[in-house]
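Quick one: structure for this chain?
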Amino acid sequence: MKITEIIQKAKEEGKNRFSFELLPPLKGDGLDKTFAAIDSLMPYNPAFINVTCHREETKYTERPDGLIEKHVVRRRPGTVGVSAAIMKKYGIEVVPHVICGGQSRYDIEDTLIDLDFLGIHNVLALRGDAMHGDSRFRPHPEGLEHADALVKQIMDMNAGRFIDGEPNTKHNSQFCIGVAGYPEKHVESPNKLTDLGYLKQKVDAGAEYIATQICYDADRIIQYRDECDKAGIHAPILPGLKPFATKTQLTVLPQTFAVDLPQELVEKVLRCNDNSDVKKVGIEWAISQGEKLLAAGFPVLHFYTMTRTEQVQSIVRELFK
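Got it. Here's what it folds into:
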């Protein structure tokens, strides 16, 4: 089932749902931790599961002769395989992330063909981050620079058009494409209006729904929906939530995700004696956010778990009981 169909069904039936995102395991690890995380949330009937995609990194090692050797490695490969394993084991819709970073258009096309063969027909199309250590995003020499171009490539495949120009008259993919949205604007956008323009380009290219970046202000997400509507962006929006867990996140989250933290949340975290107390605050804050968003008509909430689900269990137990 398409993600848009899941969202619409939840809305029509008045049965609110949630989804969540997982990391592929580190190279060399198995799927035990991944399956354990999923097992902990399956009793609450998740709508679908996202699986992130991570680009390459540069690693330096010292050779026996003392010289330094450069290697390009991927610490978390396996997005396609993990997605297929989850779908096979749990019979749930999966949404692998497909990124521009570090990939040629041909690499992307091969990934999409593999996903289609596996019966995975939902994807989240992202530009991806800059390579670690780079000051800005640099596309692959034969790749794509922006997410709207990635959406267009996926739409071309849906229409039976491949990169080499050979028309496909036998089988067309049917990918439902999601894209990222930023209630507080993307860190690289000069302002909110420009950022909405970039989002509209992605939706106009064929994206069918929007998953928001982490945001700790429910009112800001509701306002973002209104701003999208005024800008002619009418795709359904999945609010992205991540429960606060540690005091260090007071600085790490704004630096990493360019989010503003509401003063009330900051003060509550600062009053905590330890991270155990912070986690309780994080659960309470996310529940409050969720209640407000569900009341505002968002039928599906999306949780960023980093494959740690203890807090999310408490939140969905309260919101979706």
